[in-house]
Amino acid sequence: MRVLVLLGPPGAGKGTQAKVLAHELGILHLASGDLFRAEIAAGTPFGREAKTYLDRGALVPDELTVRMIVDRLSQPDAQAGVVFDGFPRTGPQAEALDAALAKRGTRVEHAIYLDVPTEELVRRLSSRWLCPEGHVYNTMANPPRVPGECDHDGKKLIQRDDDRPETVRARLAQQLAPLYEVVDHYREQGNLSVIDGTQPIPAVSADILRLLRVGDRAA
Ligand code: AP5
Ligand code: MG
């Protein structure tokens, strides 16, 4: 089971790059934020609880998040490998992931930090549009061919509730300190790589794929 972790602040490009990696490597893209949003859309009790955190730009408590991810990791489509997007987000989540993977006889192969300065994050999130199926666009950097419509399925594009400027500011204010704990966790394990996330999307993908291929040869 091949396990990669994409790390980065809100808007760094984790979802964009995770889709490319999952496709290139034939592994599952597992995004904690997408799982929460699916529960919210389905109106489950878990989703109602998660929504109270997402609406405030706060992290969902570790216990709920870890349980959701570990359950998902047990499903058949995760067995070939996983690229995590948005998880782990705190030191305790990183430790819980290590423990869950150790039980399966594996570990995080690479934790890849997408480095993007804060001013750029705010700009990206205010110009992000999404298809309900999860395809991601940006009116400035990555526009759809037809404005307002998904290139893949023609569905109407929408904006995320938590991309309102005040919620973006709350996400950045509350979520960076715990993220740096996660970065330190992987730096100490020796599997952290930092990629310049300010480059155009294809250049970021190429850097990541180059890193993984070098890793393959070394393994
Ligand atoms: P989540 O959905 O994970 O959101 P996030 O981390 O805030 O990250 P985003 O999805 O906003 O950004 P991204 O890095 O995926 O960037 P994207 O590729 O879209 O989490 C949402 C919420 O759920 C959290 O606030 C929290 O409440 C909760 N949650 C989730 N996980 C949790 C956890 N583990 N523990 C506790 N709570 C959790 O790109 C952004 C935009 O930039 C797009 O428009 C894209 O087209 C554009 N773009 C991408 N790359 C480039 C580039 N290289 N150049 C120019 N533009 C680019
Ligand atoms: Mg995302």
Describe this structure in words.
The chain has helices spanning 14-25, 32-42, 45-54, 62-73, 91-103, 118-126, 165-189, 201-218; strands at residues 2-7, 28-31, 81-85, 110-115, 128-130, 136-138, 192-196. The chain is an alpha/beta fold and 219 residues long. The protein has a domain at 2-118 and 191-218: P-loop containing nucleotide triphosphate hydrolases (Rossmann fold), CATH 3.40.50.300. Helix 2 crosses helix 3, helix 4 (62-73) packs parallel to helix 5 and helix 5 (91-103) crosses helix 7 (165-189). The radius of gyration is 17 Å and the shape is globular. The structure holds BIS(adenosine)-5'-pentaphosphate and magnesium ion (MG). BIS(adenosine)-5'-pentaphosphate binds at residues 8, 10-16, 32-33, 36, 53-54, 57-60, 65, 86-87, 89, 93, 124-125, 128, 136-138, 141-142, 162, 171, 197, 199-201, 204.
The portion of residues assigned to helices is: 40-55%
Separation of termini? Answer: 14 Å
Let me know the average pLDDT: 95
Shape: globular
Bound molecules: BIS(adenosine)-5'-pentaphosphate, magnesium ion
| Class based on secondary structure composition and strand pairing | alpha/beta
Number of E-type strands:
7
Spatial extent as radius of gyration:
17 Å
CATH topology grouping of the domain at 2-118 and 191-218? Rossmann fold
Secondary-structure element string: EHEHHHEHEHEEHEH
Strand order of the largest sheet: 2-3-1-4-7
| Largest sheet, strands/sense/barrel | 5 strands, parallel
| Low-confidence residue ranges | none
Query: Can you tell me the CATH class of the domain at 2-118 and 191-218?
Result: Alpha Beta
Q: Based on the structure given, which CATH architecture of the domain at 2-118 and 191-218 is correct?
A: 3-Layer(aba) Sandwich
| Separate helix tally | 8
